[in-house]
């Protein structure tokens, strides 16, 4: 068939097809996955860190598919972050779109677990996500993780001891904990430093070719 001959009335004999063995590698969605309960501020954070402009709203399940954003290192290199839709209790058994969302998390190297510091039970919120990661398996619970207590601009410091909360979270998770505000950008630089450090450590050493 061609432009001139649009309805060919003849055909060439078919040839045997090819059989190939292919090794396909699953591509990473992003280096860093921003995870947490719905409404923790994940989309707000990616919009503060990158040029991504996802929908942000004061109700759960605003984000239904991952939003990607490129965050620049001081060296100018870009690193892709993914704002993953909020997880809920039971996600590992399919609650919400849990399985789909956890599958996205699987395709990231480092997890940035965002927790709403204005919640009435920060430790419970942390545990809810931790348990879903464990229940899903596939090494998600063992993936390098950093925790960030978000919305500290809205915390009443008279009644909430942020330092004590951060320490408790650190003891629970064995992970570094940062106190941040995605809205006012407080603490974001310090947190990014930690993320760059973790990613640098994960880099596979370059193979050196030896000539003899
Ligand atoms: N005061 C304050 N509010 C924040 C901060 N970060 C996010 N918010 C608010 O929290 C609400 C939820 O923010 P989103 O960024 O949509 O939260 P999300 O985690 O992406 O939510 P889902 O997509 O539903 O999982 C919005 O009203 C934001 O303005 C913060 O640092 N400080
Ligand atoms: Mg969102």
Automatic annotation (TrEMBL):
Residue span(s) of domain Obg: 1-29
Domain (OBG-type G) ranges: 30-200
A Pfam family reported for this protein in Swiss-Prot or TrEMBL: MMR_HSR1
The UniProt record lists the keyword Magnesium: yes
Entry keyword set: GTP-binding, Magnesium, Metal-binding, Nucleotide-binding
Biological source species: Nostoc cf. commune SO-36
Domain of life, per lineage: Bacteria
Descriptive protein name: GTPase ObgE
InterPro entries from the UniProt entry: G_OBG, GTP-bd, GTP1-OBG_CS, GTP1_OBG_dom, OBG_GTPase, P-loop_NTPase, Small_GTP-bd
